[in-house]
Records
---
Amino acid sequence: MTVSRSKIWQEIWDKKGQKADVPLHHVDGFDLLDAEQWDYMVGQVTRPLGLKDGEKILECGCGAGAFLASLLKKFPELKVTGLDYSQPILAAAKRNVKGDFYHGDMTDLSIFSDGQFEKTISYSTFHYLSSEGAAARAVREMVRVTRAGGSVFIGDVSDLAKREMALALRKMTHQNHQRVSSANTDHLFVPQELFRQLAGELKLGIDIIDQESFDLPFYDNAKYRYSVYLRKNSGRKG
């Protein structure tokens, strides 16, 4: 029986979630970045969102909560909610981040109501999904739970157009990494056109920004990844 990419990665994150006494962003896989670099990157990629204190924000694939923890340093009054498919790594988020955390799959957000959040985000997670179909389901769900006038941010997406370059680069940058699993841990590369098609179908505003544009010289993956910003119409006329 073929095991899906998503399931393989879930098992890996279950193992990573058992780490202790390491920074949250290292638990979440960004172990080549120091704390200052991590906070800088989070600040850069979320600037287009125009976050405000007091807003309700959902992170899909929140992992150990490193992204939300970084946001809370700048916006301490954010009302944060996180969802992840790995129970062990989610436990780390519950221990370390002030917010509400749920176990679940980002392609099915039925535990949340329509328009529940001002901002819905997912950072560096779409490459763990099993297919473009799963990616499309996740986008539709993220849009559904975001209120009219709100925004959806999907960051650090591996670009299908840059797949060969990415594979060559990762072979160099990850050659000394200790593997958690012997399984084939490949990534999903998503064409930018998928997001443009969904934006048209769902009548959303869209901006797609290459990750390199955020001035992240310390983050090699920026060379082949991009971020997507979707805006829901407020429904107001005039």
---
Amino acid sequence: MNRIYGHQCYREIIRAFVKSHDSSHRALATACQIHTSYFSRVMTGDAEFSAEQLFKICKAMELQEEDINFVLMLGELSRSSHHEHKQFLKQRIEAVQEEHLRLSQQLQGEMTRLGPEQIDLYFSDIRLAKVHMLLTVPRFRAYPQQISRRLGLSEHELQKLLERLHQLGLIRFHGGAVHHVEQSIHLDEHHPLSLQNHKNWRIDALHHLTSSERQPHDYHFSATFTCDADTKGRIKEIFKSAIVQAQSLVAACPRVEQAYVLTLDLY
């Protein structure tokens, strides 16, 4: 599914979802308890979904809270018949789109582009990403065999993972050493594999918490709090800005000595 913030109409978002999930309008209408004939009329522009119906559709598409707010704004714009109100909503929508575009560009930077099948292969095995990141460290790049001890892999397992990275065009060998590594891979948050990728890294974090590998500079933090939805959204934006700042620090780092993992959860 394409990022929803590139769309100006909620119908486009629904069509993109149906297409990417090999589903149908009928199946989505049934899941949301909306009469199929009315659903079809809305999708052809002859009617509008109510805010409640659109909310049900967003939940069926498993959109995040922030994304739901955006889709509901598009629905409100589509239903509005008041010129000043429509202009007000358009300005709000454009502001949200511009902010997401800015953050997306900052987060992605110069990302390596992989095809759909390559993306599936890369994110299906967390060990592949681990080996890939360790290869950005000079000492591991010069002697890839050291990765076996670092990750607890057999030499055969490591060789298989190195071969996959080579097939993906992410590394190149020369004389037994890796002499080139494509560093940045981006997985869109709406990609079907995004949730599984998050799960894989959280499982890895749990393993780290219960192991003896923790280092003095490692940091783990957990907290629960109460607030309203708007405040939660503002906290999320703080997290996203912090990630952008962290990426800038990493880019300016004078030397690469080790690979580290950062995970954030807000729910």
---
Amino acid sequence: MKNALAFNWFDWFLILGTTLVSVASSLLGDGWDTLGFIVAVTGIINLVLCAKGNIWNYLFGIIYNAIYVYISWKSKLYADSGIYLLYYLPMQFVGWASWKKNQNRDSGAVNAVHLTRKTALILLAAAAVLIPLFAWLLSQPFIGDSQPWLDATTTVVSILAMYMMVKAIAEQWYIWIVLDAAQVVKWAIATIRGEEHAALMLVMFAFFLANAIYGLIQWNGLAKQASARPQP
């Protein structure tokens, strides 16, 4: 297997595509969006490296998550902001430690595993309970979230997907596909409303969605190779 650091043409398409579209969006808009540009570029590099099973994704994930907290808070997506600050950002450090122990010395990629039926049922049950609960909470007048159902969906799915990433479960990418699709819808609405940074977030999550589909293919291969490797 090739080294996990080696980028192919699709990796560069995602990284350069996100970068160029982010630059064009800023130049054609009201002005240069520095924060939006940084979070878009670090975000796509984070996920491209994650799709390759490369542990260095967590370095870019720390930068991306920290800035995204601020951007989502300004857009009144309070659940997004809170979960990124209290869960997603700290989990970058947890993931680094977990992947370090589960790294393939030959390829540099993490050793992926497949999701068991029991774990899948637990995760689905958790989503079915938590999404309506979060949506109800966010719709309360004392919070006033601008998009409670979409915000609740992306929040809960983020929790489940991040847990699966840390555990190197290949089927995490099905969740990322759902999550990124929901984020595309959410930031499209925010863009129509004219909210700051929203257009760049829309572009970023569109590329994230493409990377999630690619990541699913990559990680199925990683899991297959890990299962075929002789156990010590």
